Amino acid sequence: MDMFKKLNFKDKQNLIIMAAFAVAFLAAILVGALAFHQPLVAVVCIMLLDIAIAVCLHNAELWLHGTLMIVVLIVGILVPRISTAVIAVIMYAVTICALKYLFANEN
Predict the structure, then answer these.
(1) Is 69 exposed, middle or buried (0-12, 13-18, 19+ CB in 10 A)?
(2) Which sign, positive or negative, has the C-alpha torsion 3, 9, 11, 17?
(3) How far apart are CA 107 and CA 89, in angstroms?
(4) Per residue in 2-24, pLDDT tens?
């Protein structure tokens, strides 16, 4: 607890954002696996892949993010896993928002 007091305000904000992101990640996995009865390994792999794509494209234009989300939803409709696709799109949006906020706090 003593280390948390030594952090400045920006570091505390970044730590809170990362903790909220971790909670959202775990919630997405639990909702996908328990509520929608999807295989746990598949849900985790989809979430990790989605986060990796978001990290790679976080500086891209807004239209690219929208196109990617639409493609994920279309694939979710074609493969009967629309619930997992919706969770993946929400997790992608959360990842992009967290990265934008973290990199905005750097300056």
Answers:
(1) middle
(2) positive
(3) 28
(4) 566 666 777 777 788 888 889 98
Using CA atoms, how far residue 25 sits from 29, 56, 88, in Å, is 6, 18, 10
Under 8 Å between Cβ of 87 and 32: yes
Q: What percentage of the chain reaches a pLDDT higher than 70?
A: 91
Token pair listed for 26: 């775990």
Per-residue HEC secondary structure of 45-102 comes to HHHHHHHHHHHHCCCCCHHHHHHHHHHHHHHHHHCCCHHHHHHHHHHHHHHHHHHHHH
pLDDT at residue 4, rounded to an integer:
60
The DSSP secondary-structure symbol of 19 reads: H
Contact predicate 98/17, CB 8 Å? yes
